[in-house]
Amino acid sequence: MKYMMVRATLFSLLLCPVISFAQTGGSQTDGNANFFRGNAPSFETATGPTVDFRPEGGATTDHMFGGWWYYRVSGDTRERPFGIYTNSAGGALAGSSTYTGNTATYNWSETDSAAVVRFNAVYTSVLTDGPTPGSATLANTFSITNPGSVPLVISLFNYADFDVNASSGGDSATGNINSMTITEGSTSIVFSAANASAFQVAAFAAIRDLLLNANADNLNNSGLPFGPGDFTGAYQWNLTIQPGATVDVQSTWAISVAVPEPAMLASFGAGIFAAGFGYRRWRSKQKRRVVRSRS
Fold first, then answer.
1. pLDDT digits over 244-255, tens only?
2. pTM here?
């Protein structure tokens, strides 16, 4: 069902009467690790980019379905995704994105209906491979600058949809306002946040829909422990930024997959070889017995 919704989203993009210039995604690589993100939203009810997180890269297991950032300025009637579009209140987001090596950088400037800049934003994510086989970390930093003459009151939301071991129904999670640990089998993902104001966890697609509906919503510190099920979760930061000041918020997505050690693989391979060799010897003896019995 979840993956069918991607097709529905693409279809809605084709039907949308107002299409803004896309803010393209891209790939980040470091060592064996690979992280891919699709295009940023081009309208305010877009579901956000799909993502692909593979700590061992290539054709190995993808452990993530989606993840993005949303905001609400004091006085707004709803949350909105970061992207490039004109919103229903007459304001607009404009920006750019670049991908270089293990780093992705997004820039935005948001204006109200009178074309007054309410804030500037920079989102940077850095992918790091290791330190052990099967592990990788994406460190997220979101910076908001207030160019105005009065304090800016704004809420930021970091949403993540993990599908541990590429499964959308077997995730379990524990944690709190500082970090959540999502597991399935021997694979774990830690979703952590620094100085968050609130969190919320629920099965797909409740959290995402909460951030995209037409209401102003706040996360309510519920949903943990969770599962097994189709995990989605988010953190919220409530910020007051003084004129001319910049405030940073940070989150981290860290994956750890149990990968057999080379010695274990060699032992396993030797065992298979020995078993095969023994089976062939047994079959040879059986054939000789059949020949003798017939002669």
1. 999 999 999 999
2. 0.84
